[in-house]
Amino acid sequence: MAELVYGVCDCLHPAARDKAVCVRAGFSILDAMKARLKPPPDLPDSLHAYYDASDLNPMLNDVMLSPQGISIFDSQVKVQMCTPCRKSITDKQCKNIPMFAIANELYISQLPSKFNDSPSVENAMLNLAQPMHYISVVQGGKHSSLFFRADPAQMLPVDIATEGSVGVTLVGSMTPMQKAVACTRYDVRISRVNEQLTWYRYDNNRLYFDIAENSN
């Protein structure tokens, strides 16, 4: 299913639910966006630049939007909006920032391309909380099957957030080559983890500003 990035929340949504809102100077929706989608005053410069859409159209200056969710056609500016954001912005009685808006301090931006090859385990080691478990199925080889005789959530460990570690368990019969390939998914490069943590800590994620590096 095709997905699109939406401008106000910077989230992926099914393209079938696409709702493009036309934004024009002098219209109430632009006034509402300028009043309620202002960048926070302490927003790092890199994030301010990333969510600055004024180069697409000057009237979007000082409005916090994802450029990926904006299209220009025949000089018309259209912003993709999810239903909650669109209803909030177009509600003339509402004065609050839309719940899921980037401007509601939910900005995420993008990691530099040099971190694109970081596997899930390395990213998990940098998470401040672990909200989920992952199950990977290796296909082929000697045999593979996955049976759930109960709710999968009931089969997983009860609590992961307090463990302070990321565990990886390989279960089932695999050929030596399969096992070698599967293990590479869970390799951890300490130098990469330290490099990415440093990127988080310095001017890119304020939740990490006070995180001290652990020699372990």
Give a written overview of the molecule.
The protein has seven helices and five strands. The protein has 216 residues and is α+β, with helices and mostly antiparallel strands. The longest helix has 12 residues, at 190-201.
Which features would summarize this protein structure in a list?
alpha+beta; two-stranded antiparallel sheet; 5 strands; three-stranded antiparallel sheet; 2 domains; elongated; 216 residues; 9% strand
How are the SSEs ordered, and which strands pair?
Elements: E1 3-5, E2 12-14, E3 20-23, H1 28-36, H2 45-50, E4 70-73, E5 76-80, H3 83-90, H4 120-126, H5 152-155, H6 176-184, H7 190-201
Antiparallel strand pairs: 1-2, 3-5, 4-5
Helix pairs in contact: 4-7
In a few lines, what is going on in this structure?
With 216 residues, this protein is of the alpha+beta class.
Oligomer state equals single chain
Outline the low-pLDDT stretches. Answer: 143-150, 155-164
| Alpha-beta content class | alpha+beta
Counted up, domains total 2
What is the H-and-E element order?
Answer: EEEHHEEHHHHH
Strand content: 5-15%
Give the radius of gyration: 22 Å
